[in-house]
Amino acid sequence: MTRRNVLFVLGSSRLDGNTESLARAAAEQLPSDAEQTWISLAEHRLPDFADQRHDIDHVRPTEGSAALLLDATLAATDIVIASPLYWYSVSAQTKRYLDHWSGWLRTPGLGFETTLAGRTLWGVTVLADEQPSVADPLVGTLRNSAAYLGMRFGGVLLGNGSKPGDVLNDTDALARAKTFFAQDAPLARFPYETR
């Protein structure tokens, strides 16, 4: 069995926020031999993504945040997007990271799509709303991204909180965190696909 290499992409503009706290609680339950890589998008800023898919040949980034994130993404067996719910979807930093996937898909010789196919995408988010359904756009973004690349999708671990530390009072979320990464992650499908 392949050893798990879990990449945690932290999409908050705040360090040690609620979403990161919930992700760390879930990560504590990973097997002891699982490698964990944590990258904060606030500390490793990506440049704005310019859609040039029809204009230029894409070149693999060799330095800076883009190279770091690309290499970590390609090496991961599991990618965990830990983004707070901002305006009902992922944060701007997280969206920029996912936008860069479009360029990496078109980089000759990289094999981004074939490398990620069959790997697992997970999500962790904390929202300041009692209705979990307000996070549906965030869940859809991650599920559809996984489906497009032929990845597995483990779902999204939802917590509740607003001020830093609030999620640690969400006993239901902390209980779900204990088994989150142990659950089955089926092949992702678009909502219109039949099972």
From TrEMBL:
Transmembrane segments: none annotated. Keywords: Flavoprotein, FMN. It comes from the Bacteria. Pfam families: FMN_red. The keyword Metal-binding does not apply. The keyword Flavoprotein applies. Residues 5-126 form the NADPH-dependent FMN reductase-like domain. This is Multimeric flavodoxin WrbA. It comes from Streptomyces achromogenes.
